[in-house]
């Protein structure tokens, strides 16, 4: 059984929803070994779940695919069940045979309450295996901006790169999620770290003629001269006559102002880890907002 490269959009109900979210081809047998605790966690039946735990049902019982009850509760977004399982000692970093963690499932379903519970109880923002699925990338792919904010607030690296996906910023731009893109940039993500084929986030935004994303990336210092593996700059991959192409043509004849250049230089000198401390500096609020892009 293998993880699909592009899990489909979440379905609304039933086990098909879980199959789409995990991206796993699941046989009848692998679902048949689910315990009553798995079912209670999946359906949000808190009383039944607590009863089963009190009766000695192992909190980390696994299916043939190493799916735990906590995986189920997180995927379905049942915060009380997640809390009960954690209080009973569930492994918050348990991984399925495909490397899916409870945190990944929370980011796939977009439940920031479950994300916060896991992060407050010792879950890792990134797995120790670089080939495992990334919760931050999944949140960026699905446009779950609150999950992105929560992960970054708890120390997730906005430039964490996965070999087959690229950077979180690249994934966010590829799937055209402006809110996630803005959060990543605000938190200091490298605007030029991209994905495969030598693509930068700007390449991804331009290919889809997303002028709003292009404007945002340029404002945070995107390099219009970066070339992909085919030696093409962003302007050269833009749809002819589109807004993105027109924006880049205008930018090339009227580059960044001194005001923009100074802001970018100061932010670079401060470094990503210090950007969140801007509010603590004895600066006028106008200058703080200027440096924060707010």
Brief characterization of the structure:
This protein is mainly alpha-helical and 294 residues long.
Write a structural description.
With 294 residues, the chain is mainly alpha-helical. The chain has 3 domains: 1-156, Alpha Horseshoe (Serine Threonine Protein Phosphatase 5, Tetratricopeptide repeat); 167-255, Serine Threonine Protein Phosphatase 5, Tetratricopeptide repeat (Alpha Horseshoe); 257-294. 52% of the residues lie in helices and 0% in strands. It has 19 helices and no strands. It has helices spanning 14-22, 28-32, 36-43, 46-54, 69-76, 79-87, 102-109, 112-120, 135-142, 145-153, 168-174, 178-186, 201-207, 211-219, 234-237, 243-253, 258-270, 272-275, 285-292. Helix 7 (102-109) runs antiparallel to helix 8 and helix 11 (168-174) runs antiparallel to helix 12 (178-186). The longest helix is centred in the last third of the chain and has 13 residues, at 258-270.
**CATH topology assignment of the largest domain:** Serine Threonine Protein Phosphatase 5, Tetratricopeptide repeat
Mean pLDDT across residues: 87
The string of secondary-structure elements, in order, is HHHHHHHHHHHHHHHHHHH
The shape is elongated
**What about the largest sheet?**
none
Regions with little confidence, pLDDT below 50 for 5+ residues: 1-30
Please report which band the strand proportion falls in: under 5%, 5-15%, 15-25%, 25-35%, 35-45% or over 45%.
Answer: under 5%
What is the helical fraction, as a range of percent? 40-55%
The name of the CATH architecture of the largest domain is Alpha Horseshoe
Question: Termini, distance in Å?
Answer: 46 Å
Q: How many beta strands in the DSSP annotation? A: 0
């Amino acid at each position: 059984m293998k993880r699909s490269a592009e899990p489909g959009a979440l379905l609304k109900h039933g086990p098909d929803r879980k199959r789409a979210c995990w991206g796993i081809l699941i046989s009848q047998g692998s679902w048949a070994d689910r315990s009553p605790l798995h079912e209670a966690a999946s359906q949000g039946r808190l009383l039944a779940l607590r009863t089963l735990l009190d009766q000695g049902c192992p909190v980390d019982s696994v299916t043939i695919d190493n799916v735990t009850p906590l995986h189920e509760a997180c995927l379905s977004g049942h915060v009380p069940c997640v809390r009960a399982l954690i209080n009973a000692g569930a492994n918050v970093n348990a991984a399925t045979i495909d490397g899916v963690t409870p945190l990944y499932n929370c980011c796939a379903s977009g439940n920031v309450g479950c994300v916060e519970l896991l992060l407050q109880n010792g879950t890792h923002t990134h797995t120790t295996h670089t080939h495992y699925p990334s919760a931050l990338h999944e949140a960026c792919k699905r446009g779950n901006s609150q999950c992105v904010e929560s992960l970054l607030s708890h120390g997730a690296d906005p430039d964490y790169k996965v070999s087959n996906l690229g950077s979180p910023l690249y994934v966010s731009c590829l799937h055209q999620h402006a809110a996630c893109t803005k959060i990543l940039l605000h938190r200091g993500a490298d605007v030029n770290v991209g994905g495969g084929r030598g693509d930068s986030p700007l390449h991804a935004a331009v290919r889809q003629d997303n002028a709003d994303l292009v404007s945002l990336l340029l404002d945070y210092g995107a390099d219009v001269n970066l070339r992909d593996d085919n030696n093409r700059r962003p302007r050269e991959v833009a749809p002819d006559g589109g807004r993105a192409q027109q924006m880049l043509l205008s930018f090339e004849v009227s580059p960044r102002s001194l005001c923009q250049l100074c802001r970018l230089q100061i932010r670079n000198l401060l470094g990503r880890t210090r950007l969140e401390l801007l509010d603590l500096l004895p600066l006028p609020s106008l200058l703080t907002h200027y440096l924060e892009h707010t």
